[in-house]
Amino acid sequence: MKTINVSLVGVGGQGILLTANMLARTAAIAGMDVKKSEIHGMAQRGGSVISSVRFGTEVFSPIIPEGQSDILVAFDRLEALRWSHFLAKDGKALINNTDIVPVTVSSGLQQPVSDFETRLAKAFPDALVVDAAKIAEEVGNVRTMNMVIAGALSALTPFRESQWTKAMEESFTGPKAKLLDLNKKAFDLGRAAVAQ
């Protein structure tokens, strides 16, 4: 199997690393070779975070070159635009339909992006958009937003739902085990939102 590159982008606190870890674990459960890397740019203060997951028969490096992401998963729309140059020409973009205003903009240090909607539409004419916050609210906990996104992502991967479920069960152990059912529900609704 050829190597598949997945870039997950957003800001600190959105659950990007847990989602990337679950994807990597799912690929390993499926018997794939997996490599993962991440960059936390002031993540604790709401800065950009990018995590790269590569899987296939044999993967030599965790780094995804620009323009080589088969799937770009953006946890908010501004980060989608910021990292759009990572998406391959025939790649798929999965974008969470939310906007997080950077501190530099809200504090007046920087102007907001001009022509945002136009630029976003041009960069991602065929994007799959999921309203993860709304779905997470339906589940009863907005913190499950990343599992909604993981569910939507799962529909774009070659892995079986059972492999994703096993990875989720391995991710929610110890004190986190009590959150498993809630997160499974969020995952299932996210998967259904994209499969429609």
Describe the protein's architecture and organization.
This protein is an alpha/beta fold. It has a single domain, classed as Pyruvate-ferredoxin oxidoreductase, PFOR, domain III (Pyruvate-ferredoxin Oxidoreductase, domain 3, 3-Layer(aba) Sandwich). The protein is built from 8 helices and 6 strands; from the N terminus they run βαβββαβααβαααα. The chain has a 6-stranded mixed β-sheet. Strand 4 (69-74), helix 2 (77-82) and strand 5 (87-96) form a beta-alpha-beta unit. Helix 6 packs across helix 8. It is globular. It starts with a strand and ends with a helix. The model has no long low-confidence stretch (mean pLDDT 91).
DSSP helix fraction: 25-40%
Query: Architecture, CATH level 2?
Result: 3-Layer(aba) Sandwich
Note the gap between the termini: 27 Å
Number of domains: 1
Give the name of the CATH superfamily.
Pyruvate-ferredoxin oxidoreductase, PFOR, domain III
How are helices and strands ordered from N to C? EHEEEHEHHEHHHH
What are the low-pLDDT stretches, counting only 5+ consecutive residues below 50?
A: none
Mean pLDDT: 91
Structural class: alpha/beta
The helix count comes to 8
Task: Give me the count of strands.
Answer: 6
The CATH topology is what? Pyruvate-ferredoxin Oxidoreductase, domain 3
Name of the CATH first level? Alpha Beta
Given the C-alpha coordinates, what overall shape results?
globular
